[in-house]
Write a structure and sequence with these properties.
Layout: H1 3-16, H2 18-53, E1 58-62, H3 81-93, E2 97-103, H4 105-116, E3 133-138, H5 144-151, E4 157-162, H6 164-206, H7 208-216, H8 221-256, H9 261-264, H10 273-302
Helix pairs in contact: 1-8, 2-6, 2-8, 2-10, 6-8, 6-10, 8-10
Amino acid sequence: MRAQFVLSEIGVGLRRNLTMTFAVVVSVALSLALFGGALLMREQVSTMKDYWYDKVNVSIYLCGKGDSETVVQCAKGAVTGEQKKEIEGDLKKMDVVETVTYESSDEAYKHYQEEFGDSPMAGNITPDQMPESFRVKLHDPTKYKVVATAFAGRNGVQSVQDQRSILDNLFGLMNGMNVAALFVMALMLVIALMLIVNTVRVSAFSRRRETGIMRLVGASGFYIQMPFIMEAAFAGLIGGVLACVMLLAGRYFLIDGGLALKDKLNLIDFIGWDAVLTKLPLVLAIGLLMPAVAALFALRKYLKV
């Protein structure tokens, strides 16, 4: 097969169906950009989980002097020194526990003022209203229930709180956004495939005389089909390149550049450039192969060879 002939046929097909080719390029670019964005969002959520779950603790709040009348679990009175020693000792014996840190009422009040000192409620809080607690770091944060089962309802214990639950709502929202992006991506992908099939049909119909002559002189089916497949693959490749550009631009402007979320939200461990760059070959491969395969199946039905 002469490469010059194939390339000339590709150029003819693209010029004859310029509008539809442009629509294919745009739809492929958008769908692949959403696909890459969804992959990056999933990796970002995973990175944030690893980062935050490694830092959160299980908090065991102890009964205070005024809790006996207001908290059912503290009906037997405030925690005693002996009970605190027993709780701390039992925590340190557990295999799932990495470290145990005691926080007094004064320390809890100090931390509260540091974090919420500007809040209108901060002036109404006194140190004796802040509960004593043990901050427990686990080897595996998912083993929270082991600690909760062992200490919930125990004498001197007001409540056991897993700080992971505070983050679960955020991660649930981000996962929901990820699912929505995947849905839109799937919709755009279907539109792109329909446009590719229609573009190939129109191109094949407009060149039916040439393909008829080629059949008469004994050209193989593959020889006749190749220009149409290459046209679709070329348009898809351009769409894939545009999708890669959008992903790179999105990473730069959202995190490092324009919005500079990396500086404004410095508590979030954002994914790096390596995470983006590793997704680009996959986006390009899909952009190249998806239209080519769609064109191949379209030609089997609509191009009689």
